[in-house]
Design brief:
Elements: H1 2-12, E1 32-36, E2 39-44, E3 47-50, H2 63-72, H3 78-85, H4 87-92, E4 110-113, E5 119-124, E6 127-131
Antiparallel strand pairs: 1-2, 2-3, 4-5, 5-6
Helix pairs in contact: 2-3
């Protein structure tokens, strides 16, 4: 929730937060029935729930949407939100020599976001792979 994230940002600061998602296989898929490992789940209205017991079963949130949420909720600027999803995770794992930035010698895997933080283009190894 925005209030929990606001408290975390106040306590730790934007340089010490790593955005992650537990997006399951049903991410980007329409509402319907899916599997989470061996567990049958259903996705409805952006929520994944176990068919048996109706408990939450994970997430269908994509990382780009988590970045957009931070910006839309006024909790981070665009650059700060992107850094929390790219640079900070790479730095936290000691991987800045392999990923987390756009610079010579690193894989050119990146997204181009529009002003409203929605996806415009996807590049893998420097090649345009998807464009709206």
């Amino acid at each position: 929730t925005p209030s929990a994230i606001k408290a975390l940002l106040a306590a730790k600061g934007k340089d010490h937060i790593v955005l992650i998602t537990d997006c399951m296989e049903a991410g980007m898929m329409p509402d319907g029935d899916y599997m989470l490992g061996e567990l049958p789940v259903y996705v409805k209205d952006g929520m994944a729930r176990l068919k048996e017991g109706d408990n939450l079963a994970g997430s269908v949130l994509q990382l780009k949407d988590g970045v957009k949420n931070l910006v839309d909720w006024g909790l981070a600027g665009k650059e700060e939100a992107v850094l929390m999803a790219s640079y900070n995770p790479a730095r936290s794992q000691g991987l800045l020599d392999k990923c987390g930035a756009i610079r010579p010698g690193l894989p050119a895997d990146f997204l181009i976001l529009k002003d409203d933080m929605s996806l415009a283009k996807t590049y893998l190894n420097g090649e345009l792979r998807w464009e709206e």
